[in-house]
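hi! just following up on the protien thing from before. the input was this:
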Amino acid sequence: MEVNQEALQNHLMHMLKWFHDFCAENDIRYYALGGTMLGAARHSGFIPWDDDIDVGVPRSDYERLRLLIGNREYEGYFFETPDSHSPEYRYPYGKLYDTRTTLTEHTWPALHRGVFIDVFPLDGLGNDENESIQHWSSIVKQSNYLWARTCAVRKERSFVKNAAIVVAHLIPRSVAGEKKVLSQMDLKCKTYDFDNCKYGGNVFGNWGAKEIMPSAIMGHPTLYSFGDLKIYGAERADEYLTHLYGDWRKLPPVEKRITHHDYLELDLNKPYAL
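and the predicted 3d structure came back as:
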């Protein structure tokens, strides 16, 4: 479906301001991640063709955030996490939804909620690179299965990926249900403490093993301009972005300046039913 990108970006800015203020008031650390951090560093705001917000919260703070507002409505927002009782919520991280809006993601089954910010826990992975890769790999095996169970078949995907998705959909929940896998993954992610590990990162980030990096790169949350806002990001932003993107200051080719999200419905003025 066609999306009014400017309207969606403006709405997400309001959500990000609320999230930033809530975290500041409750002494919760967070960092802009991925494209949000890249947008802050390269564009002082959204990447022009982007339409989402990603933040990471160190696990200890993430758990406090989950206790404060997890899985309930709070000031017009709803923070859903892997321990949600909703069978269609299959993400291994949290999403902050605006309950005054409607957004339906093209997943299997379709996930009917509101406009959201992705909130990823940041976890410790180990005290050397090899240990960290091994631990990350053990979690990602389950994450890949969960991804295949959650994704819908799409024509733009390769035949092999679509075939894997179809096969994963056929596995009975009694054998490997999503909630059971989510619980196992959550426990594994808590093996190491982010603040006491030399290596850590966003286990469920889009960049695979590149998400594994020295924890000191994130360091003390540091303020960056993001449109009219000031938001927190990695202390060593250049190292973080270089680790993920290489030459992050260089714009991608024009044909790659597109959003990758697939929504079935989006209405910024219609509340979804909790």
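The two ends are 23 Å apart (CA to CA).
The chain has one domain: 5-267.
cheers
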